[in-house]
Amino acid sequence: MRVLAAMSGGVDSAVAAARAVAAGHDVVGVHLALSAKPGTLRTGSRGCCTIEDSHDARRAADILGIPFYVWDFAERFTEEVVETFVGEYAAGRTPNPCVTCNEKIKFEALLEKAMALGFDAVCTGHYARLSVVDGVPQLRRSADEGKDQSYVLASLTPEQLRHAYFPLGDSVKSEVRVEAEERGLAVANKPDSHDICFIPDGDTRGFLESRLGQRPGELVDAESGAVLGRHTGVHGFTVGQRKGLGIEAPAPDGRPRYVLGLEPVSGTVRVGSADRLGVREIRANRAIWPAEPPAGPVECVVQVRAHGGTAPAVATGADPTAGEVRMELREPLRGVAPGQVVVLYRPDAEAGDLVLGSAKISATG
Fold it and tell me: At which positions is ATP bound (predicted)?
C-alpha cells in the first residue's frame, strides 16, 4: 500500500510513520506548512506547525529512510480554519479549530492531493482505532483513554475514513515514546503541543479583537435582567466561562457567575449561577454517520469536548436529508455551547468505544 505519512514534527506522527514503514508499506513523509509566517507560531514545548517542527519531521524521515516533502497549505489553512474560527466566534458560537483542521486540511485537502498522486491512505499519529465491518469503516476510541482523539476525528466522512491509517490506536503514549527512543528518533522526549497554533501568545480574546475590532455590549443577569457590566465584544466569551467576565459588582448571593448565553446581534452576554448551566437537551445539525443514520431513538453517550464533557443520552429525530439530530440527556451537562461538535458513542460494554456519529451543536435546552 502506498502511504502518505503526515509528519507534524512530533513523536506521535514520527512513530506512526515508522510503523507504516515496518509494516512494509511504500511510505512518503510530508510536513504541512500552515502559516505564511511560521516564525510567528508557537515554538518549543507548546509548539505546533513551526519551522522547528518541520526540521524535526525532516530528521525523523531521514532516520526512517523515506522521501520527505513540505507542502504549502497556508492559504487553505487560513481560509478553512482561521477564518472559520473567527467567524464562528463573531456569530456567538464556540468552534474547535483542531476538529476543523482534521476535517478540512488533513482529511480533505491533504487526502484529496494524496489520492490524486496515487496514494492509498494518509497516515497520522492520532490516537484512534479503525475497523471495517461489512465494508463500513468504524471509528473507535484508542487504547489510551487519556490521549484518545476519536472526538476530533468524528467529523470525517466514511469515504475519508476508508483512506485513513492510524497506527497508534492500540498503543499508549508511554509505549510510543519508548519506541521512538529505541528507533533513534530525536523527538522521543519532545513535549506535546498545546492550545491553538495560530494564536502564538495564547490570548484568544486579543486575537479575535485584532480581527473583529471592538463590539461593545452589556453583561446582563439572566434572572433579573440587571446590567452587571460592559464588554468589548461577545467574541471574547464562551458558554460556561467564569473568569475574566468584567462584572463590576459581586452577585447578591455572593456566588460566582458564569456565561449562560451569547447574543451577537444585540451584543448581550447573559450570565448566571452555576445551577443554570446544566442542559438536558442538545440539538445539532450537519450530522455525519459512518453507517446508516439511526432509524429511531438510540441510546448513546454524548461528548461535547475533546476531553471530558460526556453524558448518557437518547438521540432522536435523525433526518438524513437535513442532517439534524436531537439528544435528550439523562444527566445534565455543563458548558455546552452552540458551535461545539457533539460526538455520539455506543454505550454498551462490548462496543462502548464505537463512534456512532457526530454533529455540530445548534442549540441547547
Answer: 6-13, 32, 125
| DSSP H/E element including 318 | strand 310-319
3-state secondary structure of 12: helix
Active site residue 197: yes
Whole-model pTM?
A: 0.91
Whether 48 is catalytic: no
**Which pLDDT belongs to residue 318?**
58
For 1-17, what is each residue's pLDDT tens digit? 999 999 999 999 999 99
Annotated catalytic residue: which of 48, 49, 123, 197?
197
- Residue of 48, 101, 123, 300 marked catalytic: 101
How far is CA 189 from its chain centroid? Answer: 24
Residue type, 237: F
Q: Which residues are annotated as a binding site?
A: 6-13, 32, 125
Give tens-digit pLDDT for 57-83.
Answer: 999 999 999 999 999 999 999 999 999
Domain spans of the chain? 2-182, 214-276, 279-364
